[in-house]
Amino acid sequence: KKAQAWSALFSEPMSELVKRYTSSVFFDKRLWRADIAGSLAHAEMLAAQGIISAADLADIERGMAQIRAEIEAGQFEWKLDLEDVHLNIEARLTTLVGDAGKRLHTGRSRNDQVATDVRLWLRDEIDATAVLLADMQRALVSVAEKNVDTILPGFTHLQVAQPVSFAHHLLAYVEMFARDAERLADLRKRVNRLPLGSAALAGTSYPLDRERVARTLGFEAVCQNSLDAVSDRDFAIEYTAFASLVMIHVSRLAEEIVVWMSQNFGFINLSDRYCTGSSIMPQKRNPDVAELARGKSGRVVGHLMGLITLMKGQPLAYNKDNQEDKEPLFDTVDTVNDTLRIMAEMIGGEVAADGSRSGGLTVRKDAMERAALRGYATATDLADYLVKKGLPFRDAHEVVAHAVKDAIALGKDLAELPLETLQGYDARITADVAEALTLAGSLNARSTLGGTAPVQVRAQIERHHARLG
Ligand code: ARG
């Protein structure tokens, strides 16, 4: 009997500590579907090339069907001694079908096997993330549609700057998530390439048909250099970099939701389904989901740092370091997918089978507008008004600064100053200034492409509808 799973070379059994330290089965068993799919595609090609017999292929297929059923039923016995998902499945296959199981690994190494498995697994997850990113955008657009004419103060430096449409504000996030979706579609192309056939590092002496395996597994192309194929994890790093950007965008939105929900803003309310209470303060309703989403961005950015540091300094080709790619990648995928799902639902409500929405965040139009009327949000509009009357912009800026200073001292808004007072700053001011100083007037004026004027915002909503379907 061999002292170890893989070879008679070893005369001593592995130390228990080392076994636990090097084993990955308790996390990489998650790759089992991809591992079986990869093995079946490899076996099918081995048979087509005459490297194994049709009978061997049939045995392998029968064994794998049983293993799949065992795993699905929770009856498969994962063994720490067998180190990882690959050796666990292969050992079980050999127990079930004998020599055919031992022939499966012909022309293959765990090095090209694991790289293939991770890519296959990640490709499916990417497709799930893509759907969730689109759902997130739809949720934001659904709230935006109802709030084109809802006005809140736009901020810079978190100081009141200029009035903006709440829809416009939400659509800013739609743009961010749309770019994230573009990045995802782009990186998917590089994930979707086949390492199998690279074997341990140098390729193999068997007449493998790599293109055939690629077609069977739905890969767009075959990795063109065996050393690169088994060793680089840049595709996983790319996903994690993408995920970091998604989570940073979510985190900014979550931060705004937390702020808007605070009594001092009171711009929105969240349904009870997404709030938590306090064990001591009976009045509390806390936006925990948004806070956690903001917090979880930290772990995803951490995983990005972990993975790029993991890769740095590894000599070609495969090194065991790469086993450390899985937990950060798995956690990144879970975190980004869970976060997108829950945030989309909290914002846009639950989507029924017929596409209708229920729940979602409540917008407090009055509170937003009241806030927009404080803080001299239309000061720029007064300056622009004077420019239209012939004053150079820099002079207009100065005139309005004086007016704001006086208005602050009087405790009044610009729109509340009598016309005569305004005319004291510049004689060109006439009664039509009133319209320029309203929130709606301010919005309507900003009708450059991409601006906050309702006509522009509606056009953007139409564009997103067409894009998102
Ligand atoms: N569990 C290993 C990993 O995740 C599989 C590849 C092992 N290869 C090897 N030569 N030890 O990377």
TrEMBL record:
CDD domains: Argininosuccinate_lyase. It is an enzyme of class 4 (lyase). GO terms for molecular function: argininosuccinate lyase activity. Its EC number is 4.3.2.1. It comes from the Bacteria. It is found in: Cytoplasm. Residues 376-444 form the Argininosuccinate lyase C-terminal domain. Pathway: Amino-acid biosynthesis; L-arginine biosynthesis; L-arginine from L-ornithine and carbamoyl phosphate: step 3/3. Pfam families: ASL_C2 (PF14698), Lyase_1 (PF00206). The keyword Lyase applies. This is Argininosuccinate lyase. It comes from Sphaerotilus uruguayifluvii.
